[in-house]
Amino acid sequence: TGQMSLVGPRPPLPDEVATYSETERRRLAVRPGMTGLWQISGRSDLSWDETVALDLSYVDNWSFTSDVDV
Predict the structure, then answer these.
(1) Which among 11, 42, 45, 58 counts the fewest CB atoms within 10 Å?
(2) By the 8 A CB rule, do 64 and 36 touch?
(3) DSSP string over 49-60
């Protein structure tokens, strides 16, 4: 829809979404963000699985307070 949040999972490329597992697709349950947990938690030092785990933690535990903390 062209809308992003300040905080949220990284916006995926359409080609990436086509390869997502059902678990990875849960990352799409919230608006993508300009920054998120994985970006402030090691960024390029993280594996794909660690990145997905952080994004899913965000999806499962979202709150306004957690966004302010990020």
Answers:
(1) 45
(2) no
(3) HHHHHHHHHHHH
Kindly give the pairing relationship between strand 5-7 and strand 33-35. parallel
pLDDT tens column, 3-30: 889 899 988 899 999 999 999 999 999 9
Structure tokens at 39: 């970006």
Q: Are 63 and 18 in contact (CB under 8 A)?
A: no
d(CA 19, CA 17): 5
Chain-centroid distance, C-alpha 21:
15
CB 59 within 8 A of CB 32: no
